[in-house]
Structure formats: C-alpha cells, structure tokens
Amino acid sequence: MSFLFCSYLRAKIEVSEARLAHITARHPDLLPDNREQLEKTIREPELVRTSGRMIMAKILYRWFDDLLGGKYIAAVVMCETGEPARNWLMTAYITRSIPKGGFEWKKS
After folding, report:
1. 3-state secondary structure of 39
2. Where are the domains of the chain?
C-alpha cells in the first residue's frame, strides 16, 4: 500500500494494490501504462466534483493532452470521516468529457 498527498484535500490518499488491480482489470486503457498520470491526478487535480452516487466520494479530474489524443483521468476517492479519517482510491478511469455543473472546486 502506498499514499499520495492530494493538494486539494490536503490529506494523504491510500492507494492499495487491490484497488490498482481492480482499475487494471476494469480499465486497462488507464493502467498499467498511465500510472504516473493517475498519480498526478490524485496529487494535483484540476477539477473536483462530489459524486452523485456516493455522498462520501469525490471525483478528481485532470486533463492530459498526450493521453489517447487528449482525455481526462477521473479518480474516485472515498473520504471517510471519523477517527481516524480515511481517504482511499476506489477506482479511476479515462473519460473524454465531464458532466456539466456540480463542481466543488476548479483550479484557477
């Protein structure tokens, strides 16, 4: 297991081997070849939305010009409150667009 510090959340994000295996199996266009871009998305997102499906999930987005002709990576991070608080990568995927509205934060 590893941890990445997210500048937006100002917290460490837990990245487990099980979650990376899930992403590799479900989204082979993302992993294993684009791990650096995934990590950059978690560390320095450009857009953040609250998930419409899971109240405790944040979706972190970052655009990459060199990813499949220009695409976003979306990283879904669960933000559990309590003692201790836990933030962990649930899944990630490549997308060409982002749903409109509902942004919690946008890099200026």
Report:
1. helix
2. 2-99
